[in-house]
Design brief:
- Belongs to the LysR transcriptional regulatory family.
- This is HTH-type transcriptional regulator MetR.
- It is found in: Cytoplasm.
- Residues 2-59 form the HTH lysR-type domain.
- The chain contains 10 helices and 10 strands.
- Helix 1 (4-16) packs across helix 2 (19-26), helix 1 (4-16) packs across helix 3 and helix 5 (102-115) crosses helix 10.
- It has 3 domains: 4-84, Arc Repressor Mutant, subunit A (Orthogonal Bundle), CATH 1.10.10; 91-158 and 268-290, Periplasmic binding protein-like II (D-Maltodextrin-Binding Protein, domain 2, 3-Layer(aba) Sandwich), CATH 3.40.190; 161-265, Periplasmic binding protein-like II (D-Maltodextrin-Binding Protein, domain 2, 3-Layer(aba) Sandwich).
- The protein is α/β, with parallel strands linked by helices and 293 residues long.
Length: 293
């Protein structure tokens, strides 16, 4: 019986006081409003308002419809606005190519989910090729990386810095040195994550510039196994300082700086249009606060 056009017309009459003012403000003709009112009166079998009164005085039936319009139309408007908003932020997909980052990342994600339970948070480990293009295509929403580049469509938010260190067993002979030189690894088994060496900082920033290679590269799937192998004397590894702190505090391993020290930084890469979104800022702040505590 009642249609939205009827509710909008009745609300307009109540607000503007006459058919002429209502028509002007709703941008429809007076004849169209009169037609709607007559149609509605036929449907309800009664009169909506008293004729020849200024401002319009509604009958009891008309007042019921006006009150209904005041309740329903704001709800419909709010729903329309909600449905018209982009839904991309309902999903939040993180991508990371840093195996050891899981030590701080997973607790951070848990804290983030406590604040944004409405978001469907997903985590991808191990970048596919061209992560920036995947970010711009909307396949991922945030990438955590230490490799940044200047470009206008991606914004890199700083997270925190860390030192890359050589990790060895507590009784390893290299413990006698104040720092590690590239040539020191020529007789060592270097334990690494299962990624190409050309993506490793220890290779690009330490070994390659001095044209050095370890005695052997040996890939290990996860940080816990890798550190246990280091502790057992099966090789050495180059890892961020946060990844080895627990083992080092238990005197299971020891660490030495690589050369004069290799300082790296992690960044969150996001689309420029998303860099000010509340949940992006919140995730960044949580990471800065909790990542290495």
């Amino acid at each position: 019986m009642l249609e939205l056009k009827h509710l909008r017309t009745m609300q307009g009459l109540a607000k503007f006081g006459s058919i002429a003012s209502c028509a002007e403000n709703l941008h429809i003709t007076q004849s169209a409003i009169s037609h709607q009112l007559k149609e509605l009166e036929v449907r309800i079998g009664g009169q909506l308002f008293y004729r020849k009164t200024k401002p319009i005085r509604f009958t009891s039936q008309g007042q019921i419809i006006v009150e209904l319009a005041h309740r329903v139309l704001p709800q419909i408007l709010a729903t329309e606005q909600q449905l018209s908003q982009p839904q991309e932020n309902r999903r939040f997909t993180l991508a990371i190519d840093c195996h050891s980052c899981f030590q701080w990342l997973l607790p951070t994600i848990k804290r983030f989910q406590n604040q944004y339970a409405e978001l469907d948070v997903d985590l991808e480990s191990g970048f596919h090729q061209h992560p920036q293009e995947r970010l711009l295509a909307g396949e991922i929403d945030l990438m955590i990386t230490s490799d940044i580049e200047t470009r206008g469509d991606i914004h890199f938010l700083p997270l925190f810095g860390y030192d890359l260190q050589l990790v060895m067993s507590s009784d390893h002979p290299l413990n006698n040195k104040p720092f590690i030189e590239p040539a020191d690894l020529a007789s060592e088994v270097l334990l690494t994550y299962p990624v190409d060496k050309r993506r490793m900082d220890v290779y690009n920033l330490f070994l390659k510039p001095h044209q050095c290679e370890p005695l052997k590269w040996k890939k290990v799937d996860n940080t816990s196994t890798l550190l246990q192998m280091v502790s057992g004397g099966f090789g050495v590894a180059a890892l961020p300082d946060w990844a080895v702190r627990t083992f080092e505090n238990q005197d299971l391993i020891s660490t030495k700086p690589l050369g004069d020290g290799i300082r790296r930084h992690l960044y969150a890469g996001v689309r420029v249009a998303d860099s000010k979104l509340e949940h992006i800022q919140a995730f960044t702040e949580l990471t800065q606060t909790h990542s290495i505590n």
